[in-house]
Amino acid sequence: MLRDKNLVPLSHQHQHVLALCVRLDRALQSGEIDREAWQAEIHDIYEQEVAVHFAAEEKELFPAARKFSEVQSLITELLDEHTALRNLFVRAGGGELQREDLQHFVETLAHHVRKEERQLFEGLQNLMSPEELSEVGSALQEALKHATNTCAVPNPATRLRPKP
Predict the structure, then answer these.
(1) How far apart are CA 24 and CA 61, in angstroms?
(2) Residue 140 · residue 56 · CB < 8 Å
(3) Which of 73, 80, 140, 154 sits CB 3.0–4.6 Å from 158 for a disulfide?
(4) Residue 18 lies in domain
(5) From CA 20, how far away is CA 142, in angstroms rounded?
(6) Exposure pattern of 25-47 as b/e (b: 16+ CB <10 Å)?
(7) What pTM does this model have?
(8) Residues 31-68 pLDDT 10s
(9) Distance between CA atoms of 33 and 27, rounded to whole angstroms?
């Protein structure tokens, strides 16, 4: 289903973190990983974009979605996932993530994003009226104005390298 224009800003941010997940997963699979560099990048992305993204969803999107019984349990799951992900982002900022934690981070974040895109956003596009979506979109635009609007450039230690 085509994404409603009012949810596109969140979807763009989802693309940014999915790109991070792909890059980190490939690095983990290759066996060549600078944990400190990856954790710094994870923390930077959290500070620049994800913290604002989570706050916007929690303040604007989730309360509007809770009006619909069809997605209430999904909202509860997503809020629990936000808590778990925040913990991983904070631990990354403290340099506490081990290799297995980084793999768990990739899997958890990618699963979360896909759940929001495929279940919540699709559901809301079917449940909300165009006026409700527009109202949520305006509130999200305001709530997201302090997030970075561009995808962060990886530092040299976290760039994907071509296979020999």
Answers:
(1) 29
(2) yes
(3) 154
(4) 8-146
(5) 25
(6) bebbeeeebebebbbbbbbbbbe
(7) 0.89
(8) 889 999 999 999 999 999 999 999 999 999 999 999 99
(9) 6
Q: What is the CA radius of gyration of the chain?
A: 16
Predicted local distance difference test score (pLDDT) of residue 155: 65
Instruction: Dump the DSSP string for 91-124.
Output: HHHTT---HHHHHHHHHHHHHHHHHIIIIIIHHH
Q: Does 119 map to a domain?
A: yes
Residue where the block lists tokens 């991983």: 88
Report how many domains make up the chain. 1
- Quickly tell me which residue has 């303040």 as its tokens: 59
Within a domain: 163: no
Burial label for 95, CB within 10 Å (0-12, 13-18, 19+), is exposed
